[in-house]
Amino acid sequence: MNPLTLRCRGASAALPTPYRMGRVDLVALDAFCKRLIDRGIAALVPCGTTGEAPLLTAEEHHQVVAITVAAAAGRVPVIAGAGSNNTAAAVELARSAERAGASALLCVTPCYLKPSQAGMMMHFRTIHDATGLPIMLYDVPARTGCALDDVTVRRLAELPRIVGLKDATGDIPRVARLRRRLGPDFLLLSGDDASQSAFRLAGGDGCISVTANVAPALLAALHAACDEKLEAEVRWFDQILAPLHEALFLEANPIPLKRALSVLGLMGDGLRLPLTPLSPTFDRKLRRVLETVSVLEEKEAARLAAARRATAHAA
Question: Which of 71, 82, 199, 270 is disulfide-compatible with 190, CB 3.0–4.6 A?
Fold first, then answer.
């Protein structure tokens, strides 16, 4: 089995990019990454949609990936976003992430231009041939205006370093279709928090999650229950997390997420235009959800820490 598949099972975090005085806050990012790892997150995914990648300069993109790699220190993989609707620009982002020490790349379908399936094939093949890193495809048609056909995914999977797909379509039957066509080694990760449990139980490997930034220990526990096929526990976690999933998408991601993390004291809630602050009405709704979920998250984090101490003592 592909080593990345083994290491990325479970909940990975789609990282936001913190700002301070309008500049990327690398200190806050470092501390935030370490917190996520300590709370059971399987992989870190900087410079994607949640990380406001289109609003970062090339230098900032490189810095964010490098800081994430340093914070991970080999404990978890770093899957760096390297997406653009300009293939040449995507290649440069991919090479930059490789120089920064990323474990793999996350490459989204080209937005706005609406290329054909043949065009997307050439886009991803060009990125593949320009770097030595494993590549995860990213299919999010609601954001990009174009979608990867199953046949295109299968053809791209024939390339030696295209190893997985982040699927944000919410199409649960697709998991079984792709698994039959691609086999057990191809990494299938959900990109839709609300349906991630169904995705896992249908044969998926995990989720690149927005919610994991707010409740990493709970998300790690949810995916542990999915691993064991403990359906009653999965339903319990789903019930707890459903209001948080909803609250984090009251406005365009990452607007509610950054507000939530600011309320929790984990980073500032600064955004770059054209993103604007969360509306007061939605802010009140978000705070009510956080009051409940935060208590449960801290309990689960304490349980995880105690289990690790017990394991270390036994060893």
Answer: 199
